């Protein structure tokens, strides 16, 4: 099934992704493209039913107001402008209401409401089967939401032609590697290679305190381990990645400045021997989760908290030690357990613990202690560019604190980070 599409042309609006999501909420597919896309490029897109020119505060580039190519107006599909005073079509001077957007998309453009996860999965399964044929696909399966959903979709499409490699770098949350093995090898019968490289990573990180250096070591060593495993395999033609739509949008259009460059958008070597396959590149994060549920993944995996690539390595601040790493792992597990009990696991976007590299005096078991603090962080965000603090009830904070100081060795204090983003970042390192 080919989805009908509404194209959004980026004329400097900060609400492009909101608009795309609102259109998808009408069960119609939408994508964002740069303002200077050509008529031929739009005509090459499948099933374009309408175009929205989305202007905004960032419309001035190098001192000049950006505009679309005049030929766009002769494509022959309905066009709507928002905050675009020089356009050749009638426009709005405000963000469209739900009724206005629905009228334009469904009535004016006559787009069909076919955008849903059942259709998406069927489309991608057919596409993957046609593209891959009898070849093999390699996937680095971290256990995060994106890679897990990619794995489930490819298993549905090509079964054991998919080879999953899960590298445990020793910086995973409690029970996560075991969960990956249980779900994918034991439940989904995946072709899974499990590599325990914990000691190898920790030895490389010994004595390294600079956050960026830690990230580089973890990232580089992961590539080395993954390459070693890939070189043991024969007949691999494709590399699968969990690239999702925000990765592509954040990596910049010609109008918008690059927010951050994602390793999986344009960062792969030109001489890479694998062909790339990215079955989730059309999806926003909530759609990825919906796709995972459609594919039958367990709910706890689909709604797993966002987790940085370096794992607990950037939450064990400064030089990593096994003592503090275990304090992070155990305190994080307690926080996650209690949030689930209080129903906060679905409400809060991201929550975790941090253990810094300093100690304070306290009293534990009626004796003087000189131990580490644990810092709790719980934030809500839409796009990870800004974040607000979750205002937790005292009951929750006191319960978590009580469990951590009683159950986690080498800890005598619990603190709550009240800093939004900005000025703080979501992670501490």
TrEMBL record:
InterPro entries reported in the protein's UniProt record: Class_I_gatase-like, GATASE, GMP_synth_C, GMPS_ATP_PPase_dom, NAD/GMP_synthase, Rossmann-like_a/b/a_fold
Top-rank EC class of the record's enzyme: ligase
Classification via Gene3D superfamilies: 3.30.300.10, 3.40.50.880, HUPs
Keyword annotations of the record: ATP-binding, Glutamine amidotransferase, GMP biosynthesis, Ligase, Nucleotide-binding, Purine biosynthesis
GO cellular component: cytosol
Coiled-coil portions: none
Binding site for ATP: 142-148
Family annotation (Pfam families): GATase, GMP_synt_C, NAD_synthase
Residues of the GMPS ATP-PPase domain: 115-304
Entry EC number(s): 6.3.5.2
PROSITE patterns linked: GMPS_ATP_PPASE
GO molecular function, one term: GMP synthase activity
Functional pathway: Purine metabolism; GMP biosynthesis; GMP from XMP (L-Gln route): step 1/1
Function: Catalyzes the synthesis of GMP from XMP.
Name of the protein this chain belongs to: GMP synthase (glutamine-hydrolyzing)
């Amino acid at each position: 099934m080919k989805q009908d599409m509404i194209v959004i042309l980026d004329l400097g609006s900060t609400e492009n992704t909101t608009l795309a999501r609102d259109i998808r909420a009408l069960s119609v597919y939408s994508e964002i493209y740069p303002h200077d896309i050509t008529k031929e490029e739009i005509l090459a897109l499948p099933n374009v039913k309408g175009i929205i020119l989305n202007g905004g505060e960032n419309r001035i580039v190098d001192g000049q107001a950006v505009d679309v190519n005049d030929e766009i107006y002769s494509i022959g599909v309905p066009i709507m402008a928002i905050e675009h005073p020089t356009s050749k079509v009638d426009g709005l001077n405000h963000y469209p209401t739900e009724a206005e957007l629905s009228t334009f998309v469904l009535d004016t453009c006559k787009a069909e409401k076919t955008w849903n996860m059942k259709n998406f999965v069927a489309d991608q399964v057919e596409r993957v089967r046609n593209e891959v044929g009898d070849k093999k696909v390699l996937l680095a399966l971290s256990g995060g939401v994106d890679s897990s959903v990619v794995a489930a979709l490819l298993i549905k499409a090509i079964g054991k032609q998919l080879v999953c490699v899960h590298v445990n770098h020793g910086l995973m949350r409690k029970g996560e590697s075991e969960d990956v093995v249980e779900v994918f090898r034991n439940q989904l019968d995946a072709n899974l290679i499990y590599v325990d490289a914990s000691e190898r990573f920790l030895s490389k990180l010994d004595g390294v305190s600079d956050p960026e250096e830690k990230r580089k070591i973890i990232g580089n060593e992961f590539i080395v381990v993954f390459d070693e495993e890939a070189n043991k395999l024969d007949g691999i033609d494709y590399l699968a990645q969990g690239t999702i739509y925000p990765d592509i949008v954040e990596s910049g259009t010609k109008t918008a400045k690059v927010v951050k460059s994602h390793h999986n958008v344009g960062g792969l070597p030109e001489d890479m021997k694998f062909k790339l396959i990215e079955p989730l590149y059309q999806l926003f994060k909530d759609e990825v989760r919906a796709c995972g549920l459609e594919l039958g993944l367990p709910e706890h995996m689909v709604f797993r908290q966002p987790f940085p690539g370096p794992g607990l390595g950037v939450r064990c601040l400064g030089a990593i030690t096994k003592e503090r790493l275990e304090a992070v792992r155990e305190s994080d597990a307690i926080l996650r357990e209690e949030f689930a009990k209080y129903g906060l696991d679905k409400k809060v976007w991201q929550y975790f613990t941090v253990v810094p590299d300093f100690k304070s005096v306290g009293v534990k078991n009626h004796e003087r202690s000189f131990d580490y603090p644990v810092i709790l962080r719980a934030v809500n965000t839409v796009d990870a560019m800004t974040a607000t603090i979750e205002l937790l009830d005292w009951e929750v904070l006191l319960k978590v604190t009580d469990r951590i100081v009683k159950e986690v060795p080498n800890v005598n204090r619990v603190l709550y980070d009240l800093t939004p983003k900005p000025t703080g970042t979501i992670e501490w390192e």
